[in-house]
């Protein structure tokens, strides 16, 4: 479908459709059914007859919409209705025709993201992951504790998002769908003027019939419609117009853009308010209990009234404490019971189990004391009613502070998502390019190829290309580049960046999920969800931690109770008003509470969340905790030369003839040979040759076509031009074809190679006709980066396909000692593997397709952002701007993050290692110091808060090496 034309741009956004007739589209059966596409390989196809046989066999099957088989590529593309036929049946049908099916996807894989509610520790996230993995059709599930999300890969033919959510809820956690694969480009509209359900049906049918519309969801109660669409085919304004066109003659639909509230922010606010309210309610009851138990008894005669007996030995104080404690235990503390039930039901244990055990032990023992006092006229015993409400209050305070702090860990990501402006100025142009009208619209209504005006100080709404005007754009929020970048017609602009001064007109090229900003956000979200290998330690500890703590608590209780009953320790150790059982019980409860594993589970993911978000805001995209962890171990960095250490825009500085061929003819054969090459040096040679050709009297741009064109990787190209054998490349290519290199040519090559220039030789009919000397300037900060890496105890290496002399000259200029030259793409990967065999973790920095094998082979692949999509896809770290300083930033940030994670483990385990012996009463015999359960609860809460706050300190991270401002 072609882009929206000028006539469409002239139409107002909301038209008066009073005169539009009813137009309900009758859909075919296939339109009502979801159609899927399969792409797979078929071996054994030798000709068009073979492909026709397969297409004919598939065409007879019910449910096959179309089948296309390519005999050249050996590929088949089949569109089918999964409700009528399965992928397995399609495979069997092809094999029945006598062909073998290779690389066949056994199932479609869809991806959805789910918000998980109620996770408290690593045990919880593991339980959710286990429940999801056991669900039929789920291929892979990753659960992020700090992000409170799950990313699920599943087969939509076997299961659905509703069944996945049900599996999470069965495990005892709340779940809501955040997005699915079809949510990448969605628009929401509010509808007015609809009088009956039939109107909704008409709208649904009309939209379903449109090309480019994937799904249509209508909420009749709230009069809303949500449409998933293909931005290359259709746009939101066109959809608005189509909804209006579906109205009856007697009615008009008013359609307006609806922006749904951000669910994550709403849920985070709700969670904060919930914990705050629970804490306040708990304090309302706990404060009087604390006063009755700890304060008034120490202030006679003010506390004497608490000792008045209600019946037998039951006092007013015990009765009041029971009345105040019970709501906290069973109403405010209900969440701990629910969490414990679900944990035990899935044969697991978490923080809720520890808290429920501790508070119940204190509460029900106190109830036992109260009943004994009620039924006896001589019984005396000490109750623990203050332990339960105070413990719950401190834990709720800790959770409240923790969710406040955790909300800050995703601040960097939130700032990225808020960069795009809410509105934009849409221009309508005439045939001559003159502006007819200007309309302010929501940025969500922008369509591809729209012409937008960006005024000084305004944000660029989407990715696009400048078609008119000149300005400077501040891209620091996306790329980390401090200096404003000049933008002229033909230059690309990024959505979310700020136009500094001049007014420019841009054409929208990427919208919605296709924009650089959206892709950065998606990449960072995926990175924050990924689990780092260092977290495995915490996961393993947490798995056995709670049972070990419960066992330790029981041993502690018995260790104090049995010796006390046997008189092993003196009765003077027992505090006044207590007995041996009560003292032992307090020690046991304190051990249960102080050893909660929450902080341990938060140590890694919170640090990774902050670090990946901070890195993204500084122009360094780190693809997950695995890349972050591997990067901190790197001791050797391998740099590609062209486009990485050098600017990547070669220019010809010299052209010389070594035979009697005329310059015009020389340029013609060079252009013919190099025009088909994508190499930057080839493009520079072609550009220079065209200028030389015109300078030497050529009247037109015609040059003869090349025949038998062949690329010799890492050497050059060859072919026939006008019947003559032509070779264009380096010295290695000449040697491969036994072309003699005279001393004159050799001197020319040596002279320029020592100046760090690359020589491109041109041979005609097995004789060198001439040469071009090409230079690619070294990036200004390359030497500074190599020097700084050396100060970080990191060795720099250069690998290039260029010749040795040029490679050594560049290496000397930037300060690199180890060089590998004349290396092809696979050779680069082999060199990386060779360096890894020495036991050194290796990072590879590159920018081109030819660097992809090496990027994959390296422990950490770093792609220059201005490089190719293939290189960026293969890399672990993407440096959005082509600044080499960001190599240092990525490595330094990974080191700082891993250091912070280790510190977090110290905080998390430190409370347990120091707190558990104190809680168990190790110091009590010598110093009289003991840790009451309520104080143990405060320590437990403090450990989680300490870990999150420790991670938040990464927000203050600054680049160790800043770009030089000229």
From TrEMBL:
Segments passing through the bilayer: 278-299, 311-332, 353-375, 387-405, 544-563, 583-604, 905-928, 934-954
Protein name per UniProt: Copper-transporting ATPase hma4
Upper classification of the organism: Eukaryota, Viridiplantae, Streptophyta, Embryophyta, Tracheophyta
Keywords: ATP-binding, Copper, Ion transport, Membrane, Metal-binding, Nucleotide-binding, Repeat, Translocase, Transmembrane, Transmembrane helix, Transport
Locations listed in the record: Membrane
Family recorded in the similarity comment: Belongs to the cation transport ATPase (P-type) (TC 3.A.3) family. Type IB subfamily.
This protein's record includes keyword Transmembrane helix: yes
CDD domains: HMA, P-type_ATPase_Cu-like
Primary residence: membrane
Keyword Cell inner membrane (UniProt): no
Pfam family, one: Hydrolase
The HMA domain, residue ranges: 36-102, 110-176
Membrane protein topology class: Peripheral membrane protein
């Amino acid at each position: 479908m072609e882009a929206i034309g000028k006539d469409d741009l002239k139409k107002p956004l909301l038209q008066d459709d009073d005169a539009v007739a009813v137009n309900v589209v009758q859909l075919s059966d296939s339109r009502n059914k979801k159609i899927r596409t399969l792409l797979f390989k078929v071996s054994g196809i030798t000709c068009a007859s073979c492909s026709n046989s397969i297409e004919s066999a598939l065409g007879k099957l019910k449910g096959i919409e179309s089948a296309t088989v390519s005999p050249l590529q050996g590929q088949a593309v089949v569109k089918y209705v999964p409700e009528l036929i399965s992928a397995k049946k399609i495979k069997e049908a092809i094999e029945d025709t006598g062909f073998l099916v290779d690389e066949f996807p056994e199932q479609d894989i869809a991806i959805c993201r789910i918000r998980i509610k109620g996770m408290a520790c690593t045990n919880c996230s593991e339980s959710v992951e286990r429940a999801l993995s056991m669900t039929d059709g789920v291929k892979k599930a990753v659960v992020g504790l700090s992000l409170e999300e799950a990313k699920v890969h599943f087969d939509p033919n076997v299961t659905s998002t509703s069944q996945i959510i049900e599996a999470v809820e069965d495990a005892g956690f709340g779940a809501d769908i955040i997005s699915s694969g079809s949510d990448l480009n969605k628009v929401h509209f509010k509808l007015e003027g609809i009088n009956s359900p039939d109107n909704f049906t008409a709208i649904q049918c009309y939209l379903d019939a449109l090309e480019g519309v994937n799904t249509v969801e209508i909420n009749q109660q709230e009069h809303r419609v949500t449409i998933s669409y293909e931005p290359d085919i259709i746009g939101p304004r066109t959809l608005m117009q189509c909804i209006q066109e579906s109205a009856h003659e007697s009615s008009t639909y008013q359609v307006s853009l609806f922006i749904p509230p951000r669910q994550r922010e709403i849920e985070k606010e709700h969670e904060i308010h919930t914990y705050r309210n629970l804490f306040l309610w708990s304090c309302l009851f706990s404060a009087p209990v604390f006063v009755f138990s700890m304060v008034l008894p120490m202030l006679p005669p003010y506390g004497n009234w608490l000792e008045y007996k209600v019946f037998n030995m039951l006092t007013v104080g015990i009765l009041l404490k029971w009345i105040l404690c019970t709501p906290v235990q069973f109403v405010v503390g209900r969440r701990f019971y629910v969490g414990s039930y679900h944990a035990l039901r899935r044969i697991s244990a978490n923080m809720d189990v520890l808290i429920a055990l501790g508070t119940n032990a204190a509460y029900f023992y106190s109830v036992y004391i109260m009943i004994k006092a009620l039924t006896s006229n001589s019984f005396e015993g000490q109750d623990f009613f203050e332990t339960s409400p105070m413990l719950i209050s401190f834990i709720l305070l800790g959770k409240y502070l923790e969710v406040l702090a955790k909300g800050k860990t995703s601040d960097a990501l939130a700032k990225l998502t808020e960069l795009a402006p809410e509105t934009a100025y849409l221009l309508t142009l005439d045939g001559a390019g003159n502006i007819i009208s200007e309309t302010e619209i929501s940025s969500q209504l922008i369509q591809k190829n729209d012409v937008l005006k960006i005024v000084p100080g305004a944000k660029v709404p989407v990715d696009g290309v400048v078609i008119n005007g000149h300005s400077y754009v501040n891209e620091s929020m996306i790329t980390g580049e401090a200096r404003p970048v000049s933008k002229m017609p033909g230059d690309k602009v990024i959505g979310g960046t700020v136009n500094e001064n001049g007014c420019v007109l841009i054409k929208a090229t990427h919208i919605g999920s296709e924009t650089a900003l959206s892709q950065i956000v998606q990449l960072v979200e995926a990175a924050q969800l990924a689990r780092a290998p260092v977290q495995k330690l915490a996961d393993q500890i947490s798995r056995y931690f709670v049972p070990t703590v419960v066992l330790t608590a029981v041993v502690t209780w018995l260790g104090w109770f049995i010796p006390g009953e046997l008189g092993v320790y003196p009765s003077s150790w027992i505090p006044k008003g207590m007995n041996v059982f009560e003292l032992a019980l307090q020690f046991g409860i304190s051990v249960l509470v102080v050893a909660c594993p929450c902080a341990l589970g938060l140590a890694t993911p919170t640090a990774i969340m902050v670090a990946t978000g901070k890195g993204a805001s500084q122009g360094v995209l780190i693809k997950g905790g695995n890349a972050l962890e591997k990067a901190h171990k790197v001791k050797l960095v391998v740099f590609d030369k062209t486009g990485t250490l050098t600017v990547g825009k070669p220019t010809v500085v010299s052209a010389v003839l070594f035979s009697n061929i005329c310059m015009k003819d020389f340029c013609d054969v060079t252009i013919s040979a190099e025009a088909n090459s994508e190499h930057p040096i080839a493009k520079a040679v072609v550009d220079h040759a065209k200028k030389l050709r015109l300078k030497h009297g050529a009247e037109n741009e015609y040059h003869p076509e090349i025949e038998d064109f062949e690329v010799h990787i890492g050497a050059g190209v060859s072919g026939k031009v006008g019947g003559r054998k032509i070779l264009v490349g380096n010295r290695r290519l000449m040697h491969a074809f036994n072309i003699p290199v005279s001393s004159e040519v050799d001197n020319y090559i040596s002279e320029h190679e020592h100046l760090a220039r690359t020589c491109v030789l041109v041979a005609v009919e097995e004789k060198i006709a001439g040469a071009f000397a090409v230079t690619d300037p070294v990036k200004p900060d390359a030497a500074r980066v190599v020097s700084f890496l050396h100060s970080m105890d990191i060795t720099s290496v250069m690998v290039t396909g260029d010749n040795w002399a040029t490679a050594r000259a560049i290496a000397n200029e930037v300060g690199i000692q180890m060089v590998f030259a004349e290396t092809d793409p696979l050779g680069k990967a082999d060199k990386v593997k060779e360096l890894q065999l020495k036991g050194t973790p290796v990072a590879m920095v590159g920018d081109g397709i030819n660097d992809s094998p090496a990027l994959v082979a390296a422990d950490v692949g770093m792609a220059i952002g201005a490089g190719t999509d293939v290189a960026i896809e293969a890399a672990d770290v993407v440096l959005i701007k082509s600044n080499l300083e960001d190599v240092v930033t990525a490595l330094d940030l990974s080191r700082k993050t891993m250091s912070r994670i280790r510190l977090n483990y110290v905080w998390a385990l430190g409370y347990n290692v120091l707190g558990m012996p104190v809680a168990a009463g190790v110091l009590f015999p010598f110093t009289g110091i003991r840790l009451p359960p309520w104080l143990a609860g405060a320590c437990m809460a403090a450990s989680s808060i300490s870990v999150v706050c420790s991670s938040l300190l990464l927000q203050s991270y600054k680049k160790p090496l800043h770009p030089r401002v000229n």
